[in-house]
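FAQ: What does the model actually see?

It sees only this:
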Amino acid sequence: MLKEIKSDIYHLMHPKMAFFLTSIAKDGKPNVMACAWATPVSEEPPIVVVCVAKEAYTAELIKQTKEFVINIPAKNLLKALWICGKSSGRDADKFARAKLKQDKSKSLKTPIIDGCIGYVECKLWKAVDAGECYAFFGKVLSAYADDKYLKKGLWSLRAEIPFHLGGSRIVYFK
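And it is asked to produce this:
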């Protein structure tokens, strides 16, 4: 029997890859948040979209500096992912709190997170009002991954990338 879903409709489209979304303030202060709402929307040119709550500090920074990085973690960074999803960068240095190390990105001022297995560096192309979120469309300037886990353009199951089911549930494919 089919049951009508009235709230949390997005759960029907989960699991989604969980990742760190890094951004930077105009003064150079970096920020990181945990996110799971992203998808590619064009191959030529390469464009991705990430959805971020309008009130989020990350949304404010992306609108200001017009750049962001998707940092794809493996299972070993799960604790840091949870920490980055529990507070705002307005109130705390989440890099320090989560014990994350920054590294220089290839094409942006926004840093990458050392130890992730993949990165997608984006320049903001368009921001769209999407309900309680902004949909940030980013032109991909650079994308790279650890070749130990990405083989022939596909993630190996050994990568153990976290996938968000909803709420506090995360799964890994093995």
